[in-house]
Specification:
The protein contains 14 helices and no strands. By secondary structure, the protein is mainly alpha-helical. The protein has one domain. The chain is globular.
Length: 347
């Protein structure tokens, strides 16, 4: 009797969490999104950029830079998907983007719980998902058309899951897909290498990481060749310096309400606290997030637009929850998940 009851309880828990994640996704999209990125006042601009990327041609007399869309013409996967939904199903382009985003937010919450379950008991996984939900409202501001971000965050979670579970084939497939959606997953091979390399496996893991890098770079080069003209000039040190100064000025103006501080401050502190108890995969996520992604975002984008920085939260969250466990008096090793301890490793 105990086994059927346990199975029923597990199934019930899964159903309830799926419904909870769906509710959170709809609330975020319908109430926060409707007042920001999906507002009527930006609909014309969104349609203009959709058409421009679809044709790989900015509107007459405009440049990609003047549209605020430098080098976004290669992020074609989500644009093509929305266009396909419009043609095959008959819904409007804007409605297609809303559906894609809503489904991606929901799937992200489900995948994030599965990812965290590789380390933690369900209660800590739920804490992680709730924190993720709590900061997602910040990702709806300061832009009007970046429809690839939600799809990309799903792929980032899937990529980190594949690294943790040692699913190399799945990792390669997810990385390839992510490059067509948004190319900010270029540092993924470095995460894989840091998380997997040992003395005994140095050559094998290094070769695999190199193959991932070559694949990602080849896809990016192919996209640039297929969809040229994304910028009128190559980025320069002057551009990077000007962007950094702009971000510093914005930080000083917003003070404690600065979105990156609100979104990244707590998990960063907790990740530092949990460093000693974190495993190699969690540490690799923290290292690449802090040493690679943050500097690139700070000199290459409007840093207050945390919509692009969701990968940071994904990569740092396992170590942050480890820090939370440490503060509460429980080590990461003391609460291994059933999945992590019993599931067979992939190849």
């Amino acid at each position: 009797m105990q086994r059927p009851r346990a199975r029923l309880a597990r199934v019930t828990g899964v159903v309830v969490f799926c419904l909870f994640a769906l509710l959170a996704s709809v609330l975020l999209q319908r109430w926060i999104g409707a007042l920001t990125v999906y507002g009527e006042d930006v609909e014309a601009k969104r349609l203009e950029l959709h058409a421009a990327i679809l044709a790989n041609r900015p509107p007459a007399g405009r440049t990609w830079e003047s549209l605020g869309a430098r080098n976004t013409n290669t992020r074609v996967a989500t644009v093509w998907l929305a266009e396909a939904m419009h043609r095959l199903v008959g819904i409007s382009i804007l409605k297609a983007y809303f559906v894609i985003d809503t489904a991606s937010v929901w799937l992200s919450l489900l995948l994030l719980f599965w990812l965290l379950r590789q380390w933690f008991d369900p209660i800590y996984c739920l804490v992680g998902v709730l924190y993720f939900i709590s900061v997602l409202p910040l990702t709806y501001f300061f832009y009007f058309f970046h429809p690839w971000d939600r799809v990309s965050q799903c792929l980032w979670i899937l990529i980190f899951l594949c690294i943790k579970r040692e699913w190399f084939v799945g990792l390669a497939a997810a990385l390839a897909a992510s490059m067509v959606v948004k190319y900010d997953t270029l540092p993924v091979p470095a995460i894989y290498w840091l998380a997997s390399v040992t003395r005994a496996s140095f050559v094998r893991v290094t070769l695999k990481a190199a193959s991932l890098s070559l694949m990602a770079i080849a896809i990016l080069i192919g996209l640039v060749i297929a969809f040229p003209g994304g910028a009128s000039a190559l980025p320069s040190m002057g551009d990077a310096w000007a962007r950094a100064l702009s971000n510093i000025a914005t930080m000083a103006k917003m003070k404690l309400t600065y979105p990156p501080l609100l979104m990244h401050g707590l998990p960063t502190i907790l990740a530092i606290a949990g460093w000693s108890g974190a495993d190699r995969v969690a540490r690799a996520g923290v290292v690449i997030a802090l040493a690679c992604l943050v500097p690139l975002w700070f000199i290459g984008s409007n840093f207050q637009e945390v919509r692009a920085e969701v990968p940071f939260t994904i990569l740092v969250l396992p170590a942050a929850l480890c820090g939370l466990q440490r503060i509460l008096g429980r080590s990461l090793q003391a609460t291994p998940s059933i999945i992590a301890s019993q599931a067979p490793r992939g190849t």
